[in-house]
Amino acid sequence: MQLARVIGDIVATRKEPAFVGVKLLLIQPIAADGQDIGRPLVAVDSVGAGAGERVFFVRGKEASFPFHPTEVPTDAGIVGIIDHWSTS
Amino acid sequence: MILARVVGEVVSTQKRPQFEGAKLLILQPETPAGAKSGASLLAIDSVGAGRGELVIAVLEGRAAGEALGRKLAPVDAAVVGIVDAVEVVESQS
Hints:
The complex is a heterodimer of chains A (88) and B (93).
Chain A: E1 2-10, E2 23-30, E3 41-45, E4 54-59, E5 76-81, E6 84-87
Parallel strand pairs in A: 3-5
Antiparallel strand pairs in A: 1-2, 1-4, 2-3, 4-5
Chain B: E1 2-11, E2 23-29, E3 41-45, E4 54-58, H1 61-68, E5 78-82
Parallel strand pairs in B: 3-5
Antiparallel strand pairs in B: 1-2, 1-4, 2-3, 4-5
């Protein structure tokens, strides 16, 4: 998983049927020091995240598990909203 | 699997139910020599690792889910061991 900041949302009318009703958000991965790392990506949301929030997301097939048994064709999914984190 | 240093923890209230009760650690990947290697990542903990410890982590969904022991857990990384010692016999090029 990785930390990320939600920087926007995506609206798509024509899409894979399995995406119907699934929220798509634009996220920017961040490092533990809060710096952006890498480029933004689109992730499905299953925890009710919104723009401006710090979240953590999972990559790979496991990103579709929250929608089981629907097989959502995604490779990234937000699975938690962060209250806070601490580093040494 | 990779070697990584536990450098922090994440607290989250609103999350997928499979994460309930699981510790979520911030890991900094390291080379066998102890240098930072790449970006930090989050992993669930299944062995009771703590901050400052060198650990072994799997970076693959199925393995991480098995380490957590919960079905359909949306995880892609897990700490699966705490390292006591690393012995490098062949020097790295």
